């Protein structure tokens, strides 16, 4: 159990995984500092969800950092490229899809590292997952371990021995079913969250993108109803 007075930066996208991680950080007694990004993503509904989650779950502070990854493009989330829909679940995770945003977690973790150093803490929470994930290389344990080693070499606090950086990834070896079950035990309101890569203007999920399919599969396997709204009624994985 962590010291109740310790601070932690929690990367909060407003999605299912990051919201669950936020609840875990709170449960472990950390003062939570939520960090979200307006990075030019097409699925901006997640920012509204992040605001709702941070407010309801009692973040000590919520910062939305603005960067524009559209200047590089290279992803269906940051350029005018269609989001893949209705892929077979067996295919999800076997390649790196066009929804991968180049170096996104590296960029996000760099901001989190900077804020953590200002806050005087080395604790960073991240909702990456290596089981039910969509083929993203920056969600793997090897990546997190390498970044953590780099982070301890990259900061004034780290090199002077004041703070040891630790990237907490409590979901990395859990399935979506296990993540949802854990979150529900912690009282997470998944109705606040947004996972869809291509939601409608009124924030309804498409039910067909990789993220929706994995989310629906997780709720189905957990024996729970997904509380968010889908564009075409009750979507199924």
Describe the fold and architecture.
With 237 residues, the chain is an alpha/beta fold. The chain has a single domain (7-195), classed as Rossmann fold (3-Layer(aba) Sandwich), CATH 3.40.50.620. Helix content is 34%, strand content 11%. The protein has seven helices and five strands; from the N terminus they run E-H-E-H-E-H-E-H-H-E-H-H. The chain has helices at 16-27, 45-56, 104-119, 141-154, 156-159, 176-185, 210-222, and strands spanning 7-11, 31-38, 61-66, 123-125, 166-168. Strands 3-2-1-4-5 form a five-stranded parallel β-sheet, with helices on both faces. The longest helix has 16 residues, at 104-119. The model has no long low-confidence stretch (mean pLDDT 90).
Short key terms for the protein model shown above:
alpha/beta, 5 strands, 11% strand
What is the CATH class? Alpha Beta
Briefly note the CATH topology name: Rossmann fold
At the fourth CATH level, what is the homologous superfamily? HUPs
Number of strands: 5
Order of helices and strands: EHEHEHEHHEHH
Largest sheet strand order: 3-2-1-4-5
Entry summary:
The chain has 237 residues and is α/β, with parallel strands linked by helices. It contains 7 helices and 5 strands.
């Amino acid at each position: 159990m962590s010291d109740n007075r310790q601070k932690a930066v929690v990367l909060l996208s407003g999605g299912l995984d990051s919201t669950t991680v936020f609840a875990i950080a709170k449960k472990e007694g950390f003062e939570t500092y939520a960090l979200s990004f307006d990075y030019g993503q097409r699925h901006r509904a997640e920012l509204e969800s992040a605001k709702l989650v941070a407010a309801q779950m009692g973040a000590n502070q919520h910062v939305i950092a603005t960067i524009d990854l559209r200047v590089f493009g290279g992803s269906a989330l940051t350029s005018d490229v269609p989001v893949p829909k209705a892929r077979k679940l067996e295919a999800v995770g076997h390649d790196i899809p066009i929804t991968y945003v180049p170096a996104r977690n590296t960029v996000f973790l760099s901001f989190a590292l900077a804020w953590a150093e200002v806050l005087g803490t080395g604790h960073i929470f991240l909702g990456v997952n290596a089981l039910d994930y969509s083929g993203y290389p920056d969600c793997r344990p090897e990546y997190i371990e390498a970044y953590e080693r780099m982070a301890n070499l990259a900061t004034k606090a780290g090199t002077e021995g004041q703070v040891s950086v630790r990237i907490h990834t409590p979901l990395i070896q859990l399935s979506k079913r296990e993540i949802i079950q854990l979150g529900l035990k912690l009282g997470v309101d998944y109705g606040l969250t947004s996972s869809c890569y291509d939601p409608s203007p009124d924030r309804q999920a498409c039910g067909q993108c990789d993220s929706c399919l994995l989310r629906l599969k997780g709720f189905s396997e957990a024996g729970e109803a997904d509380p968010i709204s889908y564009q075409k009624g009750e979507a199924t994985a």
